[in-house]
Specification:
It contains 17 helices and eight strands. It has 571 residues and is α+β, with helices and mostly antiparallel strands.
Length: 571
């Protein structure tokens, strides 16, 4: 009996020694100091821990920038540490193992590992490929941003890039809805966003779609719409997607596989269908889109008829109430041409406009410049100025009696001589400012910047639309669009053009840009259907990681121009 007790004592003593050793080892763990400029998995761990406590590092990208430095300072100040912005051993030990005060004044023990818990906004871990996170890009991110914006959580623009603004919006949404604020848009977060949108009636009457279960004027009870009870978005799958794909293929809009996956091909087909049928071309297939899709008055892809919506004042309306007298039928031998069309018919029309001194390039591509020229021609010749070249517009254009552009009118016509010409800044006054460190923190969406092209001495104004890894922008007026196109040789091109940008502060800096309108925009009367991108200096390794193709192309253009200006090579 005594021997057995001694064995028990020895075992207990051994366990105590193990526990003491483990505790000592944990307490003895030392962390290397992380500071501005540090990179790697340790920085990423730090950023996630700070974010979990509500201290925003301006992104979880594994790079210790100013945002992370500020978050560290805030954490240190709130937790009684020296607020120097350097995450040393004392700070990291407190953050990872001690009792920490969160940004909202609460307390938390051990910030690391808080994400991914059962109360998280995501039912799966961040390794789930369907989870949207910082650094992601694409149409799914755009949809997330648009949804957050509708719900009142501003992602700092809808640009398809999951940056710090989007992460903050996700965190704020999660906090407001009782989810763990980890900044990851996982399944639970996305499902709740969809539910909130449905409750708002996300597909309002101003859109081509209404949300699942909501009412819509003109909705059809046709058997073709049975089973279509949700708004189809990018990534959705199912029999309802297959039904829509099949119908779109019958009408000549869809050429892809009938696979039941609502991807880029389906979205493009729906947008084309919506545009041809008088709906908002947003690529979301909801009840209004379904109603027209399966109606008897639907416009097929090969039809020459235009938008069938009643009451339209377009010069291509088939309504008897049209104010222009134009018809979308081809009874006079002309077929309607519109934005996005390409080919010989477009080129012929452009040549005719060019001969009449309208500002257009005969390239066979019906882009924003052509759209503005057509609208100008229509205004000048007493037609409804919608920028769509219907049979009546073409009949007047080719009649031999059409009016030339008025050089004194600022309405999308030929620019008066000297418009947009400027001396610009001296080369020595132009700086090379870093986008993330110097430019982005000083500007905001809605502000205007001046662009000067040193190659042509032309100058125009852009309004900032969205700020991500570059500045999404729009020409402020139709005249600005015209001047910009003139600087680019009256062509649409993605080739980066080095330009000088005058920031709201008055400082000039070097940048590069293209002039191709794409995705969304907010200015409706500038003759530019979408936005363009202005790129500023970024670290090449960061750009190679996040924008390995077009982003790097712009960085090379900026560096090449800077060397021409100063003789200095930038790594």
């Amino acid at each position: 009996m005594t021997r057995r007790c001694n064995i028990k004592r020895l075992l207990a003593l051994a366990m105590l020694v193990v526990l003491l050793f483990t505790g000592t080892a944990t307490a003895a763990t030392r962390y290397a100091t992380l500071e501005f400029g540090s990179r790697g998995s340790d920085v990423l761990k730090l950023q996630k821990a700070l974010l979990a406590l509500g201290y925003d590092p301006n992104g979880t990208d594994g790079k210790f920038g100013r945002g992370t430095e500020n978050a560290v300072k805030q954490y240190q100040a709130a937790n009684g540490l020296v607020a120097d912005g350097k995450a040393g051993n004392l700070t990291l030990t407190r953050l990872y193992h001690g009792e920490s005060v969160s940004a909202n004044g609460g307390s938390s023990s051990g910030a690391v590992g808080s994400t991914g818990s059962s109360s998280s906004g995501n039912t799966t871990t961040s390794t789930n490929p369907n989870t949207l996170k910082y650094g992601d890009s694409g149409s799914r991110v755009s949809e997330l941003q648009a949804a957050l914006l509708k719900l009142g959580f501003d992602p700092n623009g809808v640009d398809g890039r999951f940056g710090a603004g989007t992460q903050r919006a996700v965190i704020n949404f999660q906090k407001a809805n009782g989810l763990t604020a980890d900044g990851l848009a996982g399944s639970r977060t996305l499902q709740l966003i969809d539910q909130k949108l449905a409750a708002l009636g996300s597909g309002s009457s101003s859109s081509g779609n209404t949300s699942s279960g909501s009412s819509s004027s003109g909705s059809s009870s046709s058997s073709g719409t049975s089973g279509l009870n949700r708004t189809l978005r990018n990534g959705y799958t199912g029999s309802d997607v297959l039904t829509v794909q099949t119908r779109l293929k019958e009408l000549g809009y869809y050429t892809g596989s009938l696979d039941g996956v609502y991807g880029s091909g389906s979205i493009a087909a729906v947008k084309n269908f919506q545009q041809r049928n008088g709906l908002t071309a947003d690529g979301l297939a909801g009840t209004r889109t379904f109603a027209v899709l399966f109606s008897s008055s639907v416009v097929a892809a090969g039809s020459s008829s235009g938008s069938p919506s009643s009451g339209s004042t377009s010069d291509n309306s088939s309504s008897s109430g049209s104010t222009s007298g134009d018809s979308s039928s081809s009874s006079n031998g002309y077929t309607t041409l519109r934005y996005g069309d390409k080919g010989d018919a477009v080129k012929q029309m452009q040549k005719a406009l060019k001969e009449l001194k309208y500002n257009v390039s005969p390239d066979g591509d019906y882009g924003a410049l052509t759209q503005a020229a057509v609208a100008a021609f229509q205004r000048r010749n007493g037609l409804t100025a919608d920028g769509v070249a219907g049979p009546k517009t073409l009949e007047v254009l080719y009649s031999g009696n059409a009016k030339e552009a008025d050089p004194n009118a600022d309405s999308g016509m030929a620019l008066p001589e000297g418009t947009g010409s400027a001396s610009g800044p001296s080369t020595s006054s132009v700086k090379l400012l870093h986008w993330f460190n110097d430019v982005k923190p000083t500007i905001r969406a809605g502000q205007t910047v001046t662009i000067f092209d040193p190659a042509t001495n032309l100058q125009w104004t852009l309004r900032l639309y969205s700020l991500g890894r570059h500045a999404d922008s729009e020409p402020l007026t139709l005249t600005d669009t015209q001047i910009m196109y003139k600087a680019f040789g009256n062509t649409n091109t993605w080739t980066p053009k080095p330009v000088y940008v005058k920031l709201p502060s008055g400082t000039w800096t070097l940048a590069s840009m293209h002039n191709v309108p794409h995705l969304s925009g907010s200015i409706k009367d500038n003759g530019f259907d979408g936005h363009l991108c202005v790129h500023f200096l970024r670290d090449m390794d960061e750009c190679s990681k996040n924008d390995p193709n077009y982003g790097v192309q712009n960085q090379n253009a900026i560096r090449k121009k800077w060397k021409q200006m100063t003789g200095i090579t930038v790594d």
